[in-house]
Structures are given as C-alpha cells and as structure tokens.
Amino acid sequence: MSRDTVPSATSENIEAVIRLEEEEERRTTLYERIPHIIGSFVGTLSFVAVQITFVVLWVFANNTRVISLDQFPYPLLSLILCGEAVILSSFVLIRQNRTELIANRRNHLDLQINLLAEKEVTKVLQLLAALNKHLKVPGHKNTEDMELAEETAVDELAKQLKQRELASSRR
Is the pTM of this model over 0.85? Predict the structure, then answer.
C-alpha cells in the first residue's frame, strides 16, 4: 500500500468524523461562535502584540502630551485593562465550556464504540472457542482465553476502578 492510498474502511471513518464535526458546526449558533472566535484570538501572539502596542502607545501619547487623557499612574488605562481582563476571561471560560461539552460528547461516543467493540470481540472469541470445540482443536483451553471470552461486566469494572482510585488517592 502506498502512502497516498488509504484503506476504504479508514476513508469511511474519516468521512464519518468529518460529518460529525460538520454537524456540530451547523448546530453552533452565532452567539456560541463569537466567544469561540474571541477566545481563540486572545490565545495568540498577535493578541499579545496588539496589547503591548496599545499600552506603549497609550503611555507614549499621554507622556508626550499628544493627548492629555490619562496621566501617570494611568488610572484610566488600568480601568480599561481591568475591564478588558474580566470580559476576555469570560470569553475564554465560555470557549472552554463549549470545548469541554464537545470533548464530553466525543468521550461518550468513544465509550459507546469501545463497549460495542468489546462485545463484538467477546462474541468472536466465543464463536472461535465453539469452532475449536466442534473441530476438536487441542490446546486452546487456557484461563486467559476463557476469561476473555466471557461477557465483561461493565458496571462491576467501573466499581472496581472507582475503589482503586479512591484507595490510591488516600495514600
């Protein structure tokens, strides 16, 4: 297989992911997009450059009497920057909440797919064991194979995981 060719199953998966992301984008309202755009811009070097430029120009303009709006120690500049910090923090938090919501949806989908795959693999192992028994193939009776062919009790597994997490957090 060359580097440019992708197996059809992989292509189908890529297309499915693209469709899911496009659907998520279509469901996003304008009011959800604005904080995302602003929050994304705030996290760039361009934003830092704009902020530094603004502060330097403000200080320069007020020190050289180009404008006499705000004298040292620049209380108006402080007020503007504090207000901006509150508003931008809100936009960043809104963006993070949205990102977390999308991540939680993806995690839920991953869990569903993993549970389905686990059931499928268990069924395949059970069918393989039945086929081995029917064909009288010797040597396939080890404990691990038998355990893997059993249904996984997800609730019990989750309880054990929670108990181990609690025990390790107490140490």
Answer: no
